[in-house]
């Protein structure tokens, strides 16, 4: 019997980013991949879906009584997904690990009576059961967890697999499906919703980036060297909570901020408080630059430079630029 | 105004956290009130303190947790902050509960608290620092069939209009949401600065009683919670090998070059 795997696409209106492509890669390893979108998929998205072996993408059609803003309410997203799951006869549902997606995943699993694994680093089929692998306690333990119910819902962390297109591409058909939204799903009113602008050709999204350069208190508010090195590496830029509180940068990495697990993390002027470590310790390679060799980040680093980040980072950027020619 | 704050007793993130037989070790020496729950307690106390005195007297903040006796530390921490009442749900059959078993239990306890009088608000922290799932508030809203206002960086409760409004900053959007009370609200660590306990409350907290309820008291079937009712089962939990020794370079003018060469050598560029 084929396992049907349904993937929620995060940014179908523009193009699929790496997190969605990873989910499609995992979906194909588990069974037959299908996709569901809340918005209208672009031509680029459809081409990506075809290349990744997805023959069907379900597009939600919400009642006109549900406003564009209200369509983002967790209860509405959840009922939309539930309808799609029944329609696609899905056994496994995969979502990326954003906060809104975790919430929608939870309500979906609640409605389906399905097992739920949040922030899996890998999902595999073993003995006919879906198994989620997680890295917990700030990356210090590996756990695996099998879903014992017939249906399973997973949110999956970015950088868990390398996105890989299917051996042969397929034609992707868009199928609209009507969603009945019960009144109980809209007891919350959206007073306002401002979407943050997506910068085309800008840096990759922090949560999904394969390389991240982050700055902390040691930058003294100057993120110039951080951004310069990030741009040479094609990396995302992040900060510590302290640096964000100081108003030096807008997004922080940490247990209550963005949790990352990139291939390469470079932390400059960051002491490595537990809050920050909890958000990045699962990174594959950790590099620390700090003028204090006793900073806790050094304890978990693979490579560390004791020195002034304002000297070290620009020099590293210059050498890398020359290397790239 | 009656507010239930659901809290969790978790291993201290500064301590050596570990698993035993697939379960998180929660010893009384190294455990603590989940730090993010302090923001929920602070939010609850501030709402009550903003009321006219007569209404404050009829108001109640109850902390609720599901755990063994070691979790009394967490409830006492809430008492030290000024919470008046604590309930711990404990039952051997609860061991191994997944998100759904946990939520069914907490919801049953909230319904029991409701039998004494209406509950206006259920408050939680944004996540527990051990599991970091962030889904219990959402599931509580689903189970109790109440509106959910989660991840509030700012919470305003209009007691007269009986509404709650939250501002929440997501990765891709900034939202302002409102809902009628009763509602389930989770707050982030941006919502407020939790107060420090004062000496008088610290002393009083030591002897303040804690109510302990079991599954029978909640009318819950043991088969629906714990290992028996769990939809997921832990197969393995293993500590990761320690990272290899760190390679440290002291910058004497070539530190940046050394960093670049490390990246090139390891194919990270």
Report on the architecture of this protein:
The complex is a heterodimer of chains A (325) and B (269). Chain A has 2 domains: 183 residues, Rossmann fold; 114 residues, TPP-binding domain (Rossmann fold), CATH 3.40.50. Chain A is 29% helix and 28% strand. Chain A has 9 helices and 16 strands. In chain A, helix 3 crosses helix 4 and helix 5 packs parallel to helix 9. Chain B is α/β, with parallel strands linked by helices. Chain B has one domain: Rossmann fold, CATH 3.40.50.620. Chain B has 9 helices and 16 strands. Chain B has a 7-stranded parallel β-sheet, with helices on both faces. In chain B, strands 10-11-12 form a 3-stranded antiparallel β-sheet, with no helix packed on it. A two-stranded antiparallel ribbon of chain B has the order 2-5. In chain B, a hairpin with a 4-residue loop joins strand 10 and strand 11. Chain B: Its cofactor is FAD. Chain B: This is Electron transfer flavoprotein subunit beta.
Strand residues, percent of chain B: 25-35%
| Number of helical stretches of at least 4 residues of chain B | 9
Of all protein chain pairs, which has the greatest interface, and how many residues does each chain bring to it? A-B, 93 and 76 residues
Instruction: State the share of residues found in helices of chain B, binned by percent.
Output: 25-40%
CATH architecture of chain B: 3-Layer(aba) Sandwich
Specify the CATH architecture of the largest domain in chain A: 3-Layer(aba) Sandwich
List keywords for this structure.
heterodimer; A: 325 residues; alpha/beta; Rossmann fold; 7-stranded parallel β-sheet; 5-stranded parallel β-sheet; 9 helices; globular; B: 269 residues; 30% helix
